[in-house]
Amino acid sequence: MNTKPNSVELIEVAPRDGLQNEKVPVSTADKIQLIERSFAAGYRQVEVTSFAHPKLVPQMADAEAVMAGILPKWKDKVLIGLALNARGAERAVAAGCNQINYVCVASDTFAAKNQNSTSAELTARAADVAEIAKGAGVPLSISIATGFGCPFEGEIALSRVIDIARAVLVHDPVEIGFADTIGCGVPTQVTEMMAAAHGLSRTVKWRMHFHDTRHTGVANAIAAVHAGVDYLDASVGGVGGCPFAPAATGNVAAEDLVYSFNRMGIATGLDLGKLIDTAHWLGGVLGKPLPSAVARAGQFPSTAA
Amino acid sequence: MNTKPNSVELIEVAPRDGLQNEKVPVSTADKIQLIERSFAAGYRQVEVTSFAHPKLVPQMADAEAVMAGILPKWKDKVLIGLALNARGAERAVAAGCNQINYVCVASDTFAAKNQNSTSAELTARAADVAEIAKGAGVPLSISIATGFGCPFEGEIALSRVIDIARAVLVHDPVEIGFADTIGCGVPTQVTEMMAAAHGLSRTVKWRMHFHDTRHTGVANAIAAVHAGVDYLDASVGGVGGCPFAPAATGNVAAEDLVYSFNRMGIATGLDLGKLIDTAHWLGGVLGKPLPSAVARAGQFPSTAA
């Protein structure tokens, strides 16, 4: 592609993917503040919570309370709720989410550990979630996890990822995302995956989701923009991680992406100073330094807005 | 350029740039082991030490002893000694270095703090070092620091960097390097700088030197390879830093570069497993975790050589 577009839209995922594995309980009020800070920094889309079973993901047990705290004030924003099955989708609709995100997995071993299913079962289950979303008039997005590699099975053939994307396109999602769940991907994979995705559809929006586990996150994000990706997930401070990849660091940090994009002339509409402030605040909430490099090192030039 | 070459040569700089600011004294024996481990991992060129004044850089006070420890066994490798003036160059020649690296600085404020000189004085002083190198028949390389930005002056115009490169070309260096001393650079700068450099000379070798302070190191290195750079500096474990940029992390980690390059089909001739082993060993010597992501997270697939 190498179209070198001059803008890309980021989706903030810290309130869900960033926090869900944190051991420190985060209060509902702090989750709401994190979401409101995201909107104040310029985000249009935020993955606000997960409607997973509270016993499996206790950090997200207050999903309904978080939604109640941000509605109706932020109803004009895209409030994405993660739902891994029909029950989750029903909860997301009832709570007022105006987008549901469902997760397929490209690897059977990861699918078994993450969702107690096979890869094919998860692809099939998208129909259940899609039916509820359609019935409620709520847009559906679908993520494909371990698309760049699996911690148990190693390399994942691009064809497996694209086959899943092709299969779920029948549900008319507004967007399909490819996730580098364990942060093993490199830019050549990004470029090939985006080319294959555009071969499937030029109308659905394509999203990519990177972790910076091996310091490839920024390079992958730049490659994705050059390849014409529509959306990039990011998490303020770089919070997040994966329970099945112990050495993994978090999602690629929003500040790190926006810093590079700003200096490369790629517009995001986000306020880097506010993102850095939020990263410092969130580090205080979680009681630890966060992985973001730019939040630690600061902007350059230091006088930049 | 975007020639997408399928190989690049890395230069290991941990023994000099990596260690020089470390507060923990590193023994001469450990420095020698670090250099020998570098050659065992496949490096041809190592920046082995600095011939700065021992009072200014006490960690490098054993420069002659380090050289004595690796000669004559490693005389067929490129043993680069840093020399900031004629006295340093004389010491490097006497110690048996077969390449001398001199440092110019693109910013006056940084030049004053780092070498107590103006930018122009440092460019002029290259002649003193070049005369000694030429007289001894030792190849000269020249680095240009703060080429991507200065912590005090902010943005540095590309023309300033290129003017210095043009001025020092008269000394017939084998190689000129551009250093992102404080880790603020982005890939678009890399591409523009390489294009301007190739406009100056297609015969001198061009090198780039990145720090991962804002997580742009890997992206910059990939951009440099695509733009036809000849050599990239790297440091095992990502050790290093800059005394004038307190929040800076180290040089871009050799493991992080080799991991990405391996998976992108860019050959370096280096053994990633041995680099990771060396990073773990060096972390033990320094008594702290090192910034490298790949040394921490491990290879992918985990069974990779």
Automatic annotation (TrEMBL), chains A, B:
Keyword annotations of the record: Lyase, Metal-binding
Keyword tRNA processing: no
InterPro entries the record matches: Aldolase_TIM, HMGL, PYR_CT
Short name of any one Pfam family annotated for the protein: HMGL-like
Domain Pyruvate carboxyltransferase, residue spans: 8-276
GO BP term (any one): L-leucine catabolic process
PROSITE patterns named in the record: PYR_CT (PS50991)
PANTHER family listed in its UniProt record: HYDROXYMETHYLGLUTARYL-COA LYASE (PTHR42738)
Family: Belongs to the HMG-CoA lyase family.
Protein name listed in UniProt: Hydroxymethylglutaryl-CoA lyase
Organism annotation: Phreatobacter aquaticus
